[in-house]
């Protein structure tokens, strides 16, 4: 069982930056591919970014490339999401997720590929 706890959300203005963190329990963090998803009010949860087990491979939603950066620190059991040039449409609850079945370079992009989810952290971007 893996527990994931997100932090770093908040209320910011358009153009600002935020860094989200997701801390994982357990000793096998490096065996999980990790992902970030978000869900805006009235919308389905959508993929944001994913990172492979040792950070060698990353993948982003097309609309977010160049603004968001995913990274991980396996020694700290933590995955990060650096969000730059934030826009009001980035307002959502952001969730991290873990895929324990991932192979070395896997960067899962679909909800059902992840077995463990955090409770989310709210990001609100005002115009």
Textual characterization of the structure:
This protein is mainly β and 127 residues long. The protein contains no helices and eleven strands. The strands form two sheets. Strands 2, 4, 5, 6, 9, 10 and 11 form a seven-stranded mixed β-sheet that branches. It has a four-stranded antiparallel β-sheet with strand order 1-3-8-7, with no helix packed on it. The radius of gyration is 13 Å and the shape is globular.
What keywords describe this structure?
46% strand, 127 residues, globular, mainly beta, single chain
Please give a quick description of this structure.
This protein is an all-beta fold and 127 residues long. It is built from no helices and 11 strands.
Poorly predicted ranges? none
Rg, rounded, reads 13 Å
What is the helix fraction of residues, given as a range? under 10%
Figure out the total of helices.
0
Order of helices and strands: EEEEEEEEEEE
CA distance, first residue to last residue: 40 Å
Q: Report the count of strand segments.
A: 11
Structural class: mainly beta
Largest sheet: 7 strands, mixed
The share of residues in extended strands comes to over 45%
> If you average the pLDDT, what whole number results?
96
| Shape field | globular
Topology of this protein?
Elements: E1 4-7, E2 10-13, E3 18-24, E4 33-39, E5 46-51, E6 58-60, E7 68-73, E8 78-83, E9 92-99, E10 116-117, E11 121-126
